[in-house]
C-alpha cells in the first residue's frame, strides 16, 4: 500500500490548514492512502536529549516519516515564515539521520490574507532543499482568502479552487509515479473528480461516464443514492473505485454512510471490513 503522509503546520483545532489538508486527502486517487502525521506532540528539538532515544515522540515521528512514500505539507504563515511547530518537525525528522531524504512533497500554503502564505511556502521549499526532498515545482499553491473557501460543514464549495487543487494533486501523483513506478494502474483513477455530493468521470466532450452521488443527512451521515458506470467503462472496477472514494471521504470527515442504491448495498455485502462506516438508517 502506498501511503502519503499529510503534515499540517498549524496546531489550532479549527485551523484552515487542516481543512485544506482534508480537501487534498479527499482528492488523492484511491491507490494512495492519506495518513495524517501529527506534529503537535513533538517536544522542541534539543540535540542534548537525542543521544539515547529518550524522547519517544521523536522516534514515533521519525518512524512515520520512514513509513510513507510521499508527503503533502500544508503550512499557514506566521510572520512571513512557517510556524515554529513545522520548523521543529523538520528539525526532529532531520536527525539523527535524515528521515525526510528522498521523499517527494506537495507544498501548499494558505492564509486569510490575499498573499496566500507565499513567504511560508517559499521558506518550506528552501528547507526541503537541504533535506533532499523533491517538491512538485508547479503548480505553486498559495491559497489566499482561505477563510472564504469553506461552508459551515468545513467542506470546500468553490469549484474553481477544487479544480485547481485537483491539478496540484495530479502533479504530485505524477511525480510520485516517477519515483516509485508501479505496475500500470489504470489511469481512470486519476480522472475521477470530486464536487460536493459526487465523485465522477467525464468524457472528453464533458458528458458523465461514471458517477456516484451522495447526499448530506442529519447526524453526520451521508446517503449514497446512485452509482452508475457507462457501458464503455464497465469491467474495470470503476464503481468500486468510486465507492472507495466515498468511503475515504467519510473517513476524513468522520461521517457514516447509508447505502441507499443497490451497488452500495452489494459493495457492503462483499466488503464487511467497512461495516463500521455504514449504517442502515
Ligand atoms: C503569530 C501569528 C503570525 C501571523 N503572521 C501572518 C503572516 O505573516 N501572514 C499571514 O498571511 N497571516 C499571518 N497570520 C494570520 C494567519 O494567517 C491566520 O491566523 C491563519 O488562520 C492561521 O492558519 P490556520 O488557520 O491554519 O491556523 C499570523 C497569525 C499568527 C497567530
Automatic annotation (TrEMBL):
<dbReference type="GO" id="GO:0005829">
    <property type="term" value="C:cytosol"/>
</dbReference>
<dbReference type="InterPro" id="IPR000182">
    <property type="entry name" value="GNAT_dom"/>
</dbReference>
<dbReference type="InterPro" id="IPR050712">
    <property type="entry name" value="NAD(P)H-dep_reductase"/>
</dbReference>
<feature type="domain" description="N-acetyltransferase">
    <location>
        <begin position="191"/>
        <end position="279"/>
    </location>
</feature>
<dbReference type="InterPro" id="IPR016181">
    <property type="entry name" value="Acyl_CoA_acyltransferase"/>
</dbReference>
<dbReference type="Pfam" id="PF03358">
    <property type="entry name" value="FMN_red"/>
</dbReference>
<dbReference type="GO" id="GO:0016491">
    <property type="term" value="F:oxidoreductase activity"/>
</dbReference>
<feature type="domain" description="N-acetyltransferase">
    <location>
        <begin position="159"/>
        <end position="281"/>
    </location>
</feature>
<dbReference type="InterPro" id="IPR031165">
    <property type="entry name" value="GNAT_YJDJ"/>
</dbReference>
<dbReference type="GO" id="GO:0016747">
    <property type="term" value="F:acyltransferase activity, transferring groups other than amino-acyl groups"/>
</dbReference>
<dbReference type="GO" id="GO:0010181">
    <property type="term" value="F:FMN binding"/>
</dbReference>
<dbReference type="InterPro" id="IPR005025">
    <property type="entry name" value="FMN_Rdtase-like_dom"/>
</dbReference>
<dbReference type="InterPro" id="IPR029039">
    <property type="entry name" value="Flavoprotein-like_sf"/>
</dbReference>
<protein>
    <submittedName>
        <fullName>NADPH-dependent FMN reductase</fullName>
    </submittedName>
</protein>
<dbReference type="Pfam" id="PF14542">
    <property type="entry name" value="Acetyltransf_CG"/>
</dbReference>
Amino acid at each position: 500500500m502506498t501511503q502519503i503522509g499529510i503534515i499540517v503546520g498549524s496546531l489550532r483545532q479549527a485551523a484552515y490548514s487542516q481543512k485544506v489538508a482534508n480537501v487534498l486527502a479527499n482528492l488523492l486517487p484511491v491507490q494512495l492512502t492519506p495518513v495524517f502525521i501529527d506534529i503537535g506532540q513533538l517536544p522542541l528539538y534539543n540535540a542534548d536529549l537525542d543521544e539515547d532515544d529518550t524522547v519517544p515522540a521523536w522516534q514515533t515521528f521519525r518512524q512515520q516519516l520512514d513509513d510513507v512514500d510521499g508527503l503533502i505539507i500544508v503550512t499557514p504563515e506566521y510572520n512571513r515564515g512557517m510556524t515554529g511547530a513545522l520548523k521543529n518537525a523538520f528539525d526532529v525528522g532531520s536527525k539523527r539521520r535524515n528521515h525526510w531524504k528522498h521523499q517527494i512533497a506537495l507544498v501548499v500554503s494558505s492564509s486569510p490574507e490575499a498573499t496566500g502564505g507565499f513567504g511560508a511556502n517559499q521558506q518550506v521549499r528552501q528547507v526541503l532543499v537541504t533535506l533532499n526532498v523533491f517538491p512538485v515545482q508547479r503548480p505553486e499553491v498559495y491559497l489566499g482568502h482561505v477563510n472564504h473557501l469553506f461552508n459551515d460543514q468545513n467542506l470546500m464549495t468553490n469549484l474553481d479552487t477544487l479544480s485547481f487543487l485537483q491539478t496540484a494533486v495530479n502533479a504530485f501523483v505524477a511525480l510520485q509515479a516517477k519515483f516509485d513506478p508501479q505496475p500500470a494502474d489504470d489511469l481512470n483513477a486519476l480522472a475521477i473528480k470530486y464536487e460536493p455530493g459526487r465523485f465522477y468521470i467525464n468524457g472528453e466532450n464533458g458528458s458523465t461516464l461514471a458517477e456516484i452521488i451522495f447526499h448530506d443527512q442529519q447526524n453526520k451521515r451521508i446517503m449514497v443514492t446512485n452509482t452508475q458506470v457507462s457501458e464503455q467503462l464497465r469491467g474495470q472496477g470503476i464503481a468500486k473505485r468510486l465507492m472507495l472514494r466515498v468511503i475515504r471521504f467519510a473517513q476524513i470527515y468522520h461521517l457514516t454512510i447509508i447505502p441507499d442504491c443497490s451497488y452500495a448495498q452489494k459493495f457492503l455485502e462483499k466488503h464487511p471490513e467497512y461495516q463500521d462506516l455504514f449504517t442502515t438508517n
